[in-house]
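User: Structure tokens for both sequences below?

Assistant:
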Amino acid sequence: MGLASKIALRHAICMFYRLAALFALFFAALLPAPALADAADIDAAARGVVRVVLVRDEEGNVRPSSHGSGFAVTPNMIVTNAHVVRDAVLDDTLRIGIVPSEQARNGEPGAFGRIVAVSPRNDLALIEIAEGSLKLPPVTFAGGVAGNMGEVSAVGYPMNVDLAQGLEIDDIFRPQPPVKSRGFLSGERPSRQFDTILHTAPIARGNSGGPLLDGCGRVLGVNSFGADSDGSDAEFYFAVSLRELLPFLRDNNIDPRTNASPCRSIDELNAAELARFEAERADAQARIDAREEELREARQQAWIKAQMQMMEERENAIVTTMLLLIAGLIAAYTAAQLRKDESRRKFAIMAAGAAGAAFIACILVWLARPSSADIEDRVAAILKENGDGEDGATTPDLSAAGDGTLICTLVPERSRVTGARTDDIEFDWSATGCVNGRTQYGMDGGTWSRVFVPNDEAAVSVNSYDPESRTFRTDRYLLGRADMEAAREARRSYSPPACGVTDAARLLGERQSAVIAQLPERENERLVYSCEPKPASGNPAVAEAEE
């Protein structure tokens, strides 16, 4: 092979590899990227994570024996590992202490609990908090593991962090935020006698019983143990999977709150909303352009038709005028001839009258002939007759802007749901912003809204309604104890005006802005509903859009 041939072959090989690399990058861009964890969602889920402490009473001195982690599945039920509470099962002198991540509203640092169920086979245990002493925000469970390589977070209380911080034994009784670590899913596999999830989010002693969360803060499993790496191999960790956890909860009369919605960030949702808005605007502009083209064509056709009508009418008027003129001249000539004969004078007068009538009719017909100034009126009349004018245009349905009972259904592709209920919503909407005849909505910046700050849930909801598009939306902010108390304090500073009060919408819009100003920049959840008038025979919905 000659030198030129070798150089050409080398260039061809280089070009092949470059094209292969470009195709690889192209197809890699088409593949969905692993879901990245949202820090706000992880923080929201961490509110329900607790330290589970085994406490020994030694001559009146309460001392911790060991500790692990756990998380709330109901306001007063905690899941942890069976090996965390194993000693308490065998030793009735040990008590189980529950230390939350934040101090309780009543000022108590924690509470005691009792074991409800233990399943050593799959390393799960259920603890009930002493009645009325501590209420926690329960977690939401994922619908399942979406696939390998998604980002996950482990949340709990590793002992090595306590030691590194120089915490003393008594310090574990103080509420402290849990430690969060990130990694990736590495697969699902059976381990020993139960199903586990393999992941790389670092855990240590004390993390046992804490949750493994997906990118939206939903529980994928219960962290249980790690692989022995001998300091040289890659670190892998195991969590009890939902296949074990969910049946365990149901067997103990707990209905776990699950959510199988795709895990999308608010930024992704905003980008999709912007794309939807741009598409709708482009579609609306295309319809406007098409309608304008139709109107231009219809007007042109109407103008041609009006011109033809006018030409025909003018020709008819000219012919009629000429005929009347000729008839008048003939009648006038006849009258002149008849006047010569006295015996026919009567007929002469009649002929003269006919001639005068013909001349008058001739003048009237000539004056009444169509004028070019009338063409616009004729074009408008033709367009109206054909339904192409302004009066024939389709009028938008504005009934939703007034009174009416609506049924609103969640639009999943426009929503981000991590734990909230998504039932249909039924409410009566009035054009004054009154809902169900008793709950006033505020008006601020052209938006109808109502802020809901409950006393029994650590979440603030901002409900809004757009009568023009019949869209109901709920933005939910999952807050920590301090932020939630600040929101409640701001809410207690005003009383919402009742329906029918003068300027009620503006007053409420101004007053509730103090609560909205304290909320984070981005919501944790966004629920978007599409509303339609309730059918006459419709079934009642299970939720209402009111405080």
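Moving on to the next sequence.
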Amino acid sequence: MRKYIQLLAVVLAVSVSFEIAAQDNVVSKVLELGRTDNQTMVHADYLNRVIGGRIVGSPSLTYAEQWVKEQFESWGLDVIVQEAGTINVGFMRGPWSGRMLSEDGMVLHFGTPAYTAGTCGKTSGHVLIEPHSRRELERMKGALKGAWVLLDAESNGMAIDHTQKAMEKRAEVIARNEEIERKNMEIMRWNWEHRDSAAREQLPYEKSTALFYDEMVEAGVLGFIRSAKVPLRIMYDRAGCYDITMETLPKVCDIILDEAQFDVIRRKVLRRDIFQLEFDIRNHFYRGPVPYHNIIGVMKGSKYPKEYVLAGGHLDSYDSASGAVDDGNGVCVTLEAARLLAASGAKPKRTLMFCIWTAEEFGLLGSKYFVESGMVPLGSISNYFNRDGDPLMATGISVPAAMYDDFAKVCKPLADYDASVPFTVEKREGPARPRPTTAGGSDHAYFAMNGVPTISFRETDPDGMNFEYGEIWHTERDIFNKLIPRYMEHSAVVTAVTMYGLGNLDHLLSREGLYSN
């Protein structure tokens, strides 16, 4: 009996040693491929140069979903395609151009929010400044037909809200402005009667974007133009895109123009110069419903298949640029982490899920759907790594004390992967943070709200590449050349090694000290 027990102990020891060696071989292979055959930027090149911007409801997003699915399948992963929702009408953005037609004419620098109207080919017209009172509206109502109208309010990137609720708010402002106009008439009369006295100043009108929107559309305006700082922030019709049908498509253009050019045009209008603006905006719609999907690559666990380690980023993006950073960056790092592990023969103990979310820009809809769908018991998720932000280098991680030993063990192979930037694991000091009760700004939010660990890597700029996230955030500059290849390639390796290591622990990460409530 003693010999049997001794033999069994030897067999178990050999088995454990073999298992550890196999794990070490996978990690070594990931590190090697990360240096010699890193394809993070190959994914980024295709996503940006071939597919481009990927607004919800667009053919580009649908094609990108299929492309991601094909990548996972080509690497031997199982794939879950999860429909997270639909939108009534699809949107396609074609080319756009504009110019000022005058002796001092210029090419116009502008954009239009997604789910807003285009032109029927090249369309030119005169320019007016929007009316602020009914008296002004009456004075210019005949001239509104065929006009481009300058609005006072600076753009925030979203389309002009023309929902019923917005119209009701405008009506309230109009009523208050009518009272202001009555008082101003009295001031004008007083100033005339007391010409020898210091003139009283007139009261300013209360301003609201496109105050007489319905009246101007009915009068036949070509579109509205708002000023915006450069780089132009161009988003979508947040208020109305889900309510649009093929029978209620937007009728007039919604143009966001470079503030310097806007000022030039406004001065010309005030001088009553004779000139026109010409726009060719190819925004198109098609009948839905158009579904949008989460695409999840799955590497099934060999020992704990119903326990999980997740990583991800969101595939949808705004479409005035190519969505390279927000969030092609996160998508491509996640894809490459999956490819590196698959190419290295990884067979983790627990299931790894590479989550490419949809509709993050429309309110975290994809990740919210996943969390609420019950597909994966939230208590069985060891951690979710979210990447959605700067294309910087994952150079460390800060974790609660109860997780420290596990992360230190798992991340040890990364310590000297890049000798110039050692990867470090730090023990988080201070009291635990409260569990969030409202959704934040990215796809980790609904996981965190439900108590799931969402420990993320610390990302830095060790080479001093001077990246500024505000420059690309939802702007026309979110393009391929803003990516930083060395940082993204490094981060893909870090993600792969850490996911694999957590997947091979004999336990889920402790949640002790993760949240204070």
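User: Anything stand out in the second?

Assistant: The chain has two domains: 27-89+289-503, 106-274.
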